[in-house]
Amino acid sequence: MRFATFFFSAAALLTSVAGQTSTLCNPLNATCPNDPAFGMSHNFVFNTSSTVTTSFNITAGALNYTADGAAFTVAKRWDSPTIQSKFNIMFGSVSVVMKAASGTGIVSSIVLESDDLDEIDWEFMGGNSTHAESNYFGKGNTTSYDRAIYYPVSSDVRENFHNYTVDWTADRLDWLIDSTVVRTLHYADANEGRTYPQTPMSVRLGVWAAGDSSLNKWTIQWAGGVTDYSKGPYNMYVQSAEIKDYGSGSEYEWTDNTGSWQSIKAIPMLNGNSGNSTAMNAIIKAETPTLSTAEKFKALPKSSKVAVYAGSGAAGAVILAALLFYCLRQRRSGGLERDAYNANVEKAREEIYKDQMELREKGYGGDSVHGDGFPASPSTPKFPPNVSTSAANSPPMNYEGSQNVPTSPGFHLPNKHTSGGYQRF
Ligand SMILES: *[C@@H]1O[C@H](CO)[C@@H](O)[C@H](O)[C@H]1NC(C)=O
Ligand SMILES: *[C@@H]1O[C@H](CO)[C@@H](O)[C@H](O)[C@H]1NC(C)=O
Ligand SMILES: *[C@@H]1O[C@H](CO)[C@@H](O)[C@H](O)[C@H]1NC(C)=O
Ligand SMILES: *[C@@H]1O[C@H](CO)[C@@H](O)[C@H](O)[C@H]1NC(C)=O
Ligand SMILES: *[C@@H]1O[C@H](CO)[C@@H](O)[C@H](O)[C@H]1NC(C)=O
Ligand SMILES: *[C@@H]1O[C@H](CO)[C@@H](O)[C@H](O)[C@H]1NC(C)=O
Ligand SMILES: *[C@@H]1O[C@H](CO)[C@@H](O)[C@H](O)[C@H]1NC(C)=O
Ligand SMILES: *[C@@H]1O[C@H](CO)[C@@H](O)[C@H](O)[C@H]1NC(C)=O
């Protein structure tokens, strides 16, 4: 199911959701503002509200934070908690460690979507414990039958955490389950690239009732049946999301209306520190004060440490006093913690780029995929509903020997783009 389709179908029901779609600017038809870039790599652990809200907008509903991570709950009709990254990646990877929600007709989803409706998906039907659906769309083209493919997962997707990845470059798009590539789509295999996802994507996670009895019968059938809310609440749990932007800019600019990846220009981050991506600055700001007490202690000036050691009888009070002293001192001296943290960020970034280079060295390959789709828009059913599951009869045909296939020569950025801090992997 296209995420946008969800919005369209939900729009009739949820004015707040409808409001979001109406503000979208489609770069194929208009000159749109640049997309904020991620330009970095980060593992978001979904254990506190601030981790999520620093980098994602909660576009519908609310989340709960539990020992199992963030709970996205459908407790009653119209619940559809959803978050959307405040940033975009222009080629990159997303690995979400999650448990899908149970419940017939309840769909848990990981969606990458761009302004011109390129889309990459993982979706989970709450009535189906065994399979995950992979899907993609290019420029909102819903006319083909060959995009949705279901793959078996090693254990119940609702009971167990699994790691669902999409790894996306200009040449190929891989879907992985627990680090095993299950599907590869090459650029040329999507209408000679015309419907290959290739524009800056935000990351959306959410759960909704595609089995609501008010929805189109094809949608309900795709979702696995009518949702019984009395058997809920239905929870999707997200433990973490590791997101890597293979580009390294601060913004992505749509230089024309083609929606081709060659038309996207990365605006470089400036060396003077003021040009970091907004997302990166937000993460740095949010995480800087969260050093552990041990780290704070380590960073204390020597004189304070001596005081702490000496005052064993009243250690707690002394530590507090020392920390207070340290904090005051830090405010004056400009922030040792921040420097230490920034050094760590720098180091992590170096490692990420090293990893990316290694990935590129290794190369990826694979065959194209064929499967069956499903009715793309609830309002205009075009296909018989039963086609959507037949792909399950022919799953991993598509990746055998993928390691032996050399990386395709692919596409090269024009020189003017390489200066934009934009790298192709
Ligand atoms: C873009 O413009 C064309 C022609 O005016 C129109 O048919 C199409 O629906 C528009 N697409 C979007 C997404 O606005
Ligand atoms: C959240 O996870 C991070 C990273 O694993 C950890 O450092 C932090 O202590 C956790 N916070 C809570 C409140 O569990
Ligand atoms: C969060 O959990 C509490 C306690 O279980 C529940 O009452 C509340 O409705 C939950 N909130 C959401 C948004 O699901
Ligand atoms: C997130 O919310 C803010 C504030 O409403 C808004 O300015 C921004 O455009 C939103 N970002 C996305 C990607 O929706
Ligand atoms: C949309 O997809 C169909 C089926 O793959 C294809 O025949 C058609 O050319 C595509 N449209 C565009 C504009 O690429
Ligand atoms: C999820 O899988 C990706 C791809 O193999 C891997 O890079 C990442 O480390 C995995 N995440 C976890 C938490 O295992
Ligand atoms: C930009 O990021 C670097 C680390 O990558 C950091 O040292 C610097 O303080 C950041 N700039 C701002 C304005 O936060
Ligand atoms: C789960 O989905 C797969 C693939 O569509 C299908 O073969 C299987 O029968 C489904 N299981 C249930 C319980 O619906």
UniProtKB/TrEMBL annotation:
The enzyme's first-digit EC class, named in words, is hydrolase
Task: Quote the CDD domains the UniProt record gives.
Answer: GH16_fungal_CRH1_transglycosylase (cd02183)
Q: Please provide, in alphabetical order, the Gene Ontology terms of the cellular component aspect for this entry.
A: fungal-type cell wall; membrane
Residues covered by the GH16 domain? 15-238
Q: Which residues cross the membrane?
A: 306-328
The subcellular localization recorded is:
Membrane
Q: Which domain of life is it from?
A: Eukaryota
Q: Name one Pfam family in it.
A: Glyco_hydro_16
State the signal peptide span: 1-19
Which GO terms label this protein's molecular function in UniProt?
endochitinase activity; glycosyltransferase activity
Q: Which GO terms describe its biological process?
A: carbohydrate metabolic process; fungal-type cell wall organization
Q: What is its EC number?
A: 3.2.1.14
InterPro entries, per the entry: Beta-glucanase-like, ConA-like_dom_sf, Glycosyl_Hydrlase_16
Where does the record place the region Disordered? 362-425
Which reactions are catalysed by this chain? Random endo-hydrolysis of N-acetyl-beta-D-glucosaminide (1->4)-beta-linkages in chitin and chitodextrins
UniProt keyword terms in alphabetical order: Cell wall biogenesis/degradation, Disulfide bond, Glycoprotein, Glycosidase, Glycosyltransferase, Hydrolase, Membrane, Signal, Transferase, Transmembrane, Transmembrane helix
Question: Bias regions of kind Polar residues — which residues?
Answer: 386-407, 416-425
Q: What does this protein do?
A: Dual chitinase/transglycosylase that plays a role in cell wall architecture. Chitinase and transglycosylase activities are coupled. Required for the polysaccharide cross-linking at the septa and the cell wall. More specifically, transfers chitin to 1,6-beta-glucan in the cell wall.
Family classification: Belongs to the glycosyl hydrolase 16 family. CRH1 subfamily.
Under which name does UniProt file this protein? chitinase
